[in-house]
């Protein structure tokens, strides 16, 4: 029978250990961070989704699921929104809302 030990050895005191919590560079989340939004909550109202916001600018962004390739960005003051792919989101330099 093969050895099935699944324990891991913690890093030693002399080892450099870096925990990188940044989103993947080519992702919707990275683009939302670039545009000034922050994670608000998930998964409610979507079973596997996330909501990102910028409350000062009335911006809400909804990623419908973890495997989604689109995000819907809207003005929470007017309800006007647009669904974008990550490639389209990369082209956005600024989001204008009724708060401006």
Please describe what this structure looks like:
The protein has a domain of 63 residues. It is built from 2 helices and 5 strands; from the N terminus they run H-E-E-E-E-E-H. The longest helix is centred in the first third of the chain and has 7 residues. The radius of gyration is 19 Å and the shape is elongated. It has a 5-stranded antiparallel β-sheet with strand order 1-2-3-4-5. It has 100 residues and is an alpha+beta fold.
Give a quick rundown of the structure.
By secondary structure, the protein is of the alpha+beta class.
Write the layout of secondary structure elements.
Blueprint: H1 28-34, E1 38-41, E2 50-54, E3 59-63, E4 70-75, E5 81-85, H2 86-90
Antiparallel strand pairs: 1-2, 2-3, 3-4, 4-5
- How much of the sequence lies in strands comes to 25-35%
Number of helices: 2
Tell me the distance between the termini.
68 Å
Uncertain ranges: none
Please describe the biggest sheet, giving its number of strands, its sense, and whether it closes into a barrel.
Answer: 5 strands, antiparallel
